Amino acid sequence: MHFIYSLLLTGSLIQLSGTINTIEDYIASDLDYLVAFYKDIHQHPEISLQEERTAGILAGELKKVGYEVTEGVGGFGIVGMLNNGDGPLILYRTDMDALPMYEKTGLDYQSQEMIMYNGAEVGTMHSCGHDMHMATWLGTARAMASVKDQWSGTLMLIGQPAEEIGAGAKMMLNAGLYERFGVPDYGLGLHCNPTIKAGRIGISEGFTMANTETIDIAIKGIGAHGASPHMSIDPVVIASMIVMEIQTIVSRNIKPIEDAVITVGAIKGGTKHNIIPDEVTLQLTVRTYKEEVRLLIHKRLKEIARGTAIAAGLPEELMPEVIIPNDFTPANYNDPEFTSLFSDWARAAIGDENVVYAEPQMVGEDFACYGRTEHDVPTILYWLGTVTQEKIDQGELPGLHSPYYFPEPRESLRTGVTVNSRVLMQLLKNSGG
Predict the structure, then answer these.
(1) Least confidently predicted of 23-27, 97-101, 423-427
(2) Which residues 6+ apart lie within 8 Å of 254 measured at CB?
């Protein structure tokens, strides 16, 4: 039985009265170092599957403070282990990759990195906050190493590649993460939030992020001259009808109390104004929480595509193909019992008013994979506030993946490292006994 559940049964909650000042003093003394680290990482972003420099720097930083580091675990993934006696094994992940886009923040440490991407030169940017994730992760690693005499157990710090393409967690798990380094008792991660004030965190229990799927529908037709539509079976019209019918899946097939999003993000077909093409492709993103809802959407997509094609008069050999990949990013689920204790410990660390409810979102995050193996590891992914009160008051709140988004470094770092360290200290002190 995971220790967290025995802790809930006993009602025991060990306080850090003798260690809180030591931890907080260390974090305060380390902030200049961490801010400088953050700015360097921000200036040198690397996109998914290209995180070589980033991974090397993180590995070197962990080695400096006594972690045993293994590199190349699933692409450029790294695993840092700090074994400190008997106790639980705790996983704490950061992601490392950036996005192929130009930065427009105007910061004096703005990224100037350029790459070739899809045949064109583009900028690169940490517009999803992974640079802050890494700096907070490093700060936590350093803080925990500085007070090894006050906890017992093992830390497994993961630097994960390729989160932005939903591949990195599975790459590391498929490379034998748990078989090689042990199955963790608990897993922890965070994500920057572009609307929560720096100095605060947001959290909720249960499903917090969605299953994320990309689905294609290949629609066949019979092409003809645009002036002779009677000689065609127009796939553009069929595609348009399918798009409209898809809207009824959520509104008429899914229970109103369930959550689902189906968005047609792209329609591709045709070459010229006066040519009716013989094929059109729809590209969809589908977001759900529950498996039965996900599978129902698959069923209805196939039925709608086929039914619309039959109504248009297409022969059997030209029926649409609904292409659903086996791999997808699973929904993130915050273990309720773990979340309750985490919230209590976070409030003790930064104050009741600074731990706020964060409503579930339909975005995706492959951190969920670490808790979705057969080992059923209790995990938490929480939101780290990153914006100033001034920006909130002025309504200047660019979202994640915006070329204008950046975290407020110092207060975001202080909060994230403090919460992480206090939570880890509680888990490791409680379990060490």
Answers:
(1) 23-27
(2) 260, 293, 296, 297
Where are the extended beta strands (E) located within 251-318?
A: 260-269, 275-276, 279-288
CB neighbours of 213 closer than 8 A, spacing ≥ 6? 285, 286, 287, 294, 324, 325, 328, 329
Asked whether residue 5 carries a pLDDT value surpassing 70, the answer given is no
Phi, psi (degrees; rounded to nearest 5) at 301: -60, -45
Given a contact cutoff of 8 angstroms between Cβ atoms, the answer to whether 263 and 362 are in contact is no
Q: How many Cα atoms are found within 13 Å in the side-chain-facing hemisphere of 266? A: 9
Is the pLDDT assigned to residue 17 strictly greater than 50?
no
- What contacts 24+ positions apart, CB below 8 Å, involve 2-7? 2/185, 2/186, 2/378, 3/88, 3/185, 3/427, 3/430, 3/431, 4/185, 4/186, 4/335, 4/337, 4/338, 4/341, 4/378, 4/427, 5/337, 7/341, 7/430
Listed residue (102, 105, 129) closest to 115, CA to CA: 102
**pLDDT higher than 50, residue 300:** yes
Say whether 187 sits in a helix, a strand or coil. strand
Average pLDDT, the chain: 94
Q: What is the DSSP letter of 273?
A: T
pLDDT average, residue stretch 97-101: 98
Map out the domains of the chain as residue ranges. Answer: 3-210+331-432, 212-323
Q: CA-to-CA distance for 207 and 190, rounded, in angstroms?
A: 15
Third-level CATH fold of 3-210+331-432: Aminopeptidase (3.40.630)
What are phi and psi for residue 89, nearest 5 degrees? -105, 120
Look at residue 118 and tell me whether its pLDDT is greater than 80.
yes
| Contact status, residue 355 vs residue 343, Cβ threshold 8 Å | yes
Helices and strands per DSSP (H, E), number in the chain: 11, 18
* Whether 218 contacts 158, CB under 8 Å: no
Q: What's the mean pLDDT in 176-183?
A: 98
Whether residue 18 is predicted with pLDDT greater than 90 in this model: the reply is no
pLDDT higher at 265 or 10: 265
Q: How big is the CA angle at 426 (ends 424 and 429), to the nearest 5 degrees?
A: 100
> Which of 389, 386, 382, 385 has its CA nearest to residue 407?
386
The model carries a pTM of 0.92
CATH of 212-323, one of 3.30.360.10, 3.30.70.360, 3.20.20.70, 2.40.30.20: 3.30.70.360
The string of pLDDT tens digits covering residues 187-235 is 999 999 999 999 999 999 999 999 999 999 999 999 999 999 999 999 9
